Fold Diadenylate cyclase.
Amino acid sequence: MQSLKELFLNLRVRDIIDILIVALAFYKLFLLIRETRAEQLTKGILALFLFTKLSEWIELYTVYWILEKAMTVGILALIIVFQPELRRALEYIGRSNFFTKSFIEIKGESLSEVVDEIVEAVASLSRQKIGALIVMERATGLSEVVETGTKIDGKVSSDLLINIFIPNTPLHDGAVIIKEDMVKAAGCFLPLTENTSLSKDLGTRHRAALGISEKSDSLSIVVSEETGAISIAESGSLARYLDTKTLRQILVDMYKPKDPKPTFITKWRRKYEQREGK
């Protein structure tokens, strides 16, 4: 108790800040690995660490020597095993608002027009039970994916999107990439998800939509060829059986630029202008 009392008495402000930063880092790391292979691997590593310390305490020297060497070599193995998760973490940092601007700024009639064209195309494809996969690029660039397909660089329109996915046409069997209000490419190849716990009735389009959402911050729209059901994939999650009203609201929320928080200078300028009667 005396040592704890001394610890609290000697605690400085910088120590509290240090602890909060480490706690926040661990929390963000937990969010990144939650419900992934890394979560189970992390549990295994923690168990191995506990067994190593336990063998040291009860003086099982041979077991301790083996586990200690395994932990030393395991650092290199961790970098290899956690490569996808490390990539996700670095991409997450790179996508933060500190480094990037809003991916798009479409307002008023332009916003309504783009959303209407996409929703109209998806609704038509759904009624006709024509399979479709549309990927909306956001902050993370998808140039590598665009290069796998045929470049179009045309303005978003329902007629264009419908014609692309008509069966037996050259581009119908790939993904369409949309950036802002432009169709960048069609017939693109996407990486498939590595999630092994998905339902067996999900086809290649749904798995491809999940795959690209795991590797970027894109939003993917999927129309099922068998049922005509509309689905959305984002951040490794899939929402199925959406109606056009819900789809429209999702797209409006995605396209609408977020209002940046006012800085101290902005607040001061507003107060100054109000005081001067401007």
